[in-house]
From TrEMBL:
It comes from Qipengyuania mesophila. It comes from the Bacteria. This is Cupin-like domain-containing protein. Residues 120-283 form the JmjC domain. PROSITE patterns: JMJC.
Length: 348
């Protein structure tokens, strides 16, 4: 395979990839227009370069940590601690447990761990993942304003040493802003999931199923279709102040390239928050449908097409409008009723 030969000749597969498109935006309003009309990933250089957090990080990693510490609330933070000698890769161990552990502590104590391990070749990976900025900090959101306008996103901060997070996807749309250090994102279209060799659905490093391929040492004998995935890959390295947009369901492999890295990301969905999570429906379908006899699965496939994937206008026209229930467009009320019904049936 062409990609296999390239990888064997050049240990850096990233040098062979297409670069993520760079877009110029004048302001937040212009960014909003691009987000609404652009189905592909893109990069905006310097989008948040004026953030105080970015300026503190350019001064030094310790200045960035001090900036965050001064705004942190006196509550326990959860921190991930990896094993030394794993090149920062947070993944499974040989028995499909995790090669890291979690601990809780005050942010000042956690940051002392960063200080103590700075410059050590055998230092463990240290990572605070998806910390809710509104819940754990005072003034951080206000001082470093969201660039995504009135979308009401979940605003999270990620703080760590050099780390590697396996390729995964997210249902919400995502704008990821590099605040401190450098990050590399390797991004794949949603349909490449078969070529990424996705691991277990219920036993995951961080809640989302991940690619089993080690991007630094891809094993093309075990994962031969990964060569095809590489033909569709896009890559970008972010400097402080840069941002990358990742559309819903696009796969992304994320690396913190500096000894200390901070990322701020914004997740939002285009559909109402009262709707359910598609992953939960997939899990339930595995429980209820996947192992049925083939002829029964075929019948359920037709029902799913009829009520879910195609859902033509005539599905409920024969039912009086006031009696259509969840066959009508969902509202917050009917979605809540359906959720309660599911909980009752699942707990029987």
């Amino acid at each position: 395979m062409r990609r296999r030969a390239v990888a064997e000749a050049d240990p850096s597969i990233f040098a062979q990839m297409k670069q993520v498109e760079v877009r110029d935006v004048a302001d937040a309003a212009a960014l909003s227009d691009v987000l609404d009309g652009h189905p592909q990933p893109f990069v905006v250089r310097g989008l948040v370069k004026d953030w105080p957090l970015v300026r503190a990080g350019l001064e030094s990693p310790r200045a960035a940590r001090q900036y965050l510490l001064e705004r942190s609330r006196p509550v326990p933070f959860t921190v991930t601690i990896g094993q030394p000698g794993r090149d920062g890769r947070l993944f499974y161990d040989d028995d499909f447990g995790m090669n890291f552990r979690e601990a809780r502590g005050k942010l000042g104590d956690i940051f002392r761990g960063f200080d103590d391990n700075e410059g050590r070749a055998d230092a463990p990976a240290i990572y605070l993942t998806s910390v809710d900025m509104k819940l754990f900090f005072d003034g951080l959101v206000e001082d470093n304003p969201s660039p995504v306008g009135d979308r009401d996103p979940l605003q999270s901060i990620w703080i760590g040493t050099s780390t590697r997070v396996a390729a995964h996807n997210d249902f919400p749309r995502n704008l990821a802003c590099c605040a401190v250090g450098r990050r590399r994102f390797t991004i794949f279209p949603p349909e490449q999931f078969e070529n990424l060799y996705i691991g277990p659905l219920e036993n995951t490093p961080a809640g989302r199923a991940v690619s089993m391929v080690d991007f630094h040492e891809p094993d093309f004998e075990t994962y031969p279709r990964f060569a095809e995935a590489l033909d569709h890959a896009q890559v970008v390295e972010l400097e402080p102040g840069d941002a990358v947009y990742i559309p819903s369901m696009w796969w992304h492999h994320v690396e913190g390239l500096s000894a200390f890295n901070v990322l701020v990301n914004y997740w939002w969905r285009d559909t109402p928050a009262f709707l359910g999570q598609p992953q939960e429906a997939l899990n339930h379908a595995i429980l209820a449908i996947r192992d049925l006899p083939a002829e029964e699965r075929a019948l359920w496939r037709k029902l799913f097409d009829h009520y879910v994937f195609e859902n033509p206008p005539g599905v409920a026209e024969h039912i009086p409008e006031q009696a259509r229930g969840v066959l009508a467009p969902l509202t917050a009320k009917t979605a809540g009723q359906l959720r309660a019904f599911l909980l009752r049936t699942l707990n029987r």
